[in-house]
Amino acid sequence: MMDHEELLQQILALGADKVGAVPVAEIDFEPSFRSLCESNACGMYGRSWMCPPHIGKVEDLIAQAKGYQTALVYQIVDTLEDSYDFEGMMAAGERMNRLTAAVRRKFEELGLKNCLFLGAGGCRICPKCAKQDDEPCRYPDLAMSSLEAYGVNVSVLAPQAGMKYINGVNTVTYFGAVLLGER
Ligand code: SF4
Fold first, then answer.
1. What is the pTM of this model?
2. Contact 135 CB / ligand 1 (< 6 Å)
3. Is 80 exceeded by the pLDDT of residue 28?
């Protein structure tokens, strides 16, 4: 059975820029962050099965997350040409999506059970979430919620995992995590 350090190395090998482990007991969960989702700055509120309000009450998700022991946190940082570099932002988002999917695949291949996979922003498995057509989730085994939906204060989590939350002008940063339960 791989230890946390070996699992972090696996995530790095899949293309993360930085990785770090944080005990779940030390994570700063902020139920009030749900109001940020409700402000719908990302445009996904109510449009994905994996986003609020459909993903469930933040208090229930926090309680669920607290049932795990260790968060293996990972980050990607991409450079943009300038703050209007929409293509660069899209490319970074796609790199993050590929990484989160690859991390999940790898952990499943390794036989790791009792994991909660959390990505950045809403689930991006399908180009258009089935919720928008009022249909059931197409890939419930692949669907992934986000650190934000679970109320994680990522600006606190980042330094706990040895990372910067913001990485300077003309950069875009994404975070994901695998929460590991008892093995
Ligand atoms: S897998 Fe597809 S249908 Fe299911 S939550 Fe994700 S985007 Fe929506």
1. 0.94
2. no
3. yes
Q: Which long-range contacts (CB under 8 A, 24 or more apart) does 35-44 make?
A: 36/148, 37/148, 37/149, 42/121, 42/122, 44/121, 44/122
Query: Which is the closest atom of ligand 1 to the Cα of 139?
Result: 1
- CB-based contact 147:30 (threshold 8 Å): no
Tokens of 144: 């992934």
What's the half-sphere exposure (Cβ side, CA atoms, 13 Å) at 69? 6
What are the tokens at 172? Answer: 């875009």
Our answer on whether the CB atom of 123 is closer than 6 Å to any ligand 1 atom is yes
User: With a 6 A CB cut-off, is 110 part of the ligand 1 pocket?
Assistant: no
Indicate the burial class of 158 (C-beta count within 10 angstroms; 0-12, 13-18, 19 or more): buried
Question: pLDDT tens digits for 101-135?
Answer: 999 999 999 999 899 999 988 888 998 999 999 99
Counting every residue written for the chain, the total comes to: 183
